[in-house]
Write a structure and sequence with these properties.
3 domains; 4-stranded parallel β-sheet; Rossmann fold; alpha/beta; 10 strands; two-stranded antiparallel ribbon
Length: about 450
């Protein structure tokens, strides 16, 4: 679905963005270092531009499928955020932090680029009026996939106009349950040619795809371009996707959302490393020895409690916590309960404030955990619940987290009833399917709020 106007539009947006990027660099150096020319920092400028190219390519910012959607603004925000992360990483390794340049640069870049985005919206309307750049789209075949596609065209595409479902002279629409689909499609193709339609999108259920060959022949006879939309609605849901390997098409039946993409996993890992290093350097460096002294003063035993937990792909790892109980033989089998006699006084404070989880930032740095994700369960609990709760093991497709969507929504601590675990798993699956850096930040802020306020389920 691309015409020359759309291609030129995407190319123009890309060139304009890079011009804005360079303008923001020059203005930022002028404001932050008025006596120094930005030409002095030519190598740095090149790095900034190359990082933008990398981020925009990774996110597909200038692809037609991105620009034609309302998510174009959101993708731009993600591109700026990823660019900031990578630039900070570069500067941290080179030691070239340029005063207040970074702050000024990203403020200017955001203002300029989103002003340009608003102008783009007006430009699309103007182009449509002047040159009629929208391409008319006709659909053949009624099924969930074609209805969803029609809805996308109606609401999200400024470059394509959904005209309607193709009918013949008798206004007959193709339904998957109709036995004479072949003849109806041929009649509709002839009718399309007679009315001047040049492009048709066909969506049929798998049991009707045998008619495609004859339909292609009919399209060739009438000089109509034919596009085929496979209807996999009966087997592909939100978690599934279609992949390509060479010329082969594969359906991924057990996909788990955004983190299936290596680019998203890479960004999440970079965020985890930066966040955990900052916490370890600026918080645990002084908090660890203080808590260690308090733990040792109250009861004998190690400062750190290590316990086997279920990790990504159900591979176990040793999870670190500040010891909050007296040394006991049930620690690896029994969850802490309200008024648990095993919990020490300092341990009760640590659990209520979630400070007992702080050593898990070392787990994050080691790669066993993420800052945000489903909480890791004890191995015994995984073995117990995997057959009791539907989709329980889905939570193990990604790394467990220090905090998670279930925890900030009240599902933490002891799970005395099965429905509590079921609700926790539902929240974990929601996180899998809807992950974004914005959601991670939202969960982190809500976690801090809960820690300050206190949580009734933390004991």
């Amino acid at each position: 679905m691309q015409n020359r106007y759309v291609f030129l539009f995407c190319l123009s947006v890309a060139f304009a963005d890079f011009a804005i990027l360079y303008l923001a660099i020059v203005m930022s150096f002028t404001i932050s270092s008025p006596l120094k020319s930005s030409l002095i920092h030519t190598d740095f400028n090149t790095i900034v531009i190359m990082l933008w190219f990398f981020c925009s390519k990774m996110l597909g910012l200038y692809d037609v499928k991105t620009i034609e959607k309302k998510e174009f603004f959101l993708t731009t925000i993600k591109c700026i955020f990823y660019h900031l992360i990578f630039l900070i990483l570069y500067l941290s390794f080179t030691g070239g932090l340029l005063g207040n340049f970074i702050f000024i640069f990203y403020i200017l870049l955001s203002l300029l680029i989103f002003t340009f985005r608003l102008c783009i919206s007006n430009a699309i309307s103007l182009l449509n009026k002047k040159f009629n750049i929208t391409s008319p789209i006709f659909l053949m075949g009624i099924n969930p996939t074609s209805l969803q596609f029609a809805d996308v065209l109606k609401n999200n595409s400024p470059f394509y106009k959904f005209v309607g479902f193709l009918t013949n002279n008798n206004n007959l629409l193709i339904d998957s349950n109709q036995p004479d689909t072949d003849q109806i499609m041929k009649d509709q193709m002839k009718f399309a040619a007679e009315t001047g339609i040049k492009e048709v999108y066909v969506s049929l259920t798998p049991d009707k795809t045998g008619a495609i060959k004859s339909l292609i022949n009919e399209a060739h006879k009438n000089c109509i371009r034919l596009k085929f939309i496979p209807d996999y609605s009966q087997i592909i849901g939100k978690n599934q996707s279609i992949r390509h390997s060479g010329d082969l098409q594969m359906i991924n039946l057990t996909g788990t959302g955004p983190q299936d993409k290596i680019s998203d996993r890479f960004v999440k890992r970079v965020f985890d490393i930066i966040f955990s290093v900052l916490v370890i350097l600026f918080v645990l460096s002084w908090l660890y020895p203080l808590i260690a002294i308090l733990i040792k003063m109250e009861s004998p035993g190690p400062v750190i409690f290590k316990q086997g937990r279920s990790g990504k792909n159900n591979i176990s790892f040793m999870c670190f916590k500040f010891r909050s109980m007296r040394v006991n033989s049930d620690a690896h089998l029994k969850q802490a309960s309200r008024n648990d006699s095993r919990v020490t006084k300092i341990g009760r404070f640590l659990r209520r404030t979630s400070l007992d989880e702080m050593p898990q930032f070392f787990n994050v740095l080691l790669g066993d955990m993420s800052v945000v994700g489903p909480r890791p369960h004890m191995l015994e609990h995984t073995a117990h619940y995997r057959d009791l709760v539907d989709n329980y093991m889905l939570r193990h497709y990604i790394k467990p987290g220090i905090t998670g969507w279930a925890q900030v929504n009240g599902y933490r601590g002891e799970t005395q009833h099965l429905d509590l675990m079921e609700n926790r798993i539902k929240h974990d699956i929601y996180y899998l399917e809807n992950w974004s850096l914005y959601l991670d930040l939202k969960i982190i802020f809500r976690t801090v709020f809960h820690v300050v306020r206190g949580n009734m389920n933390a004991f």
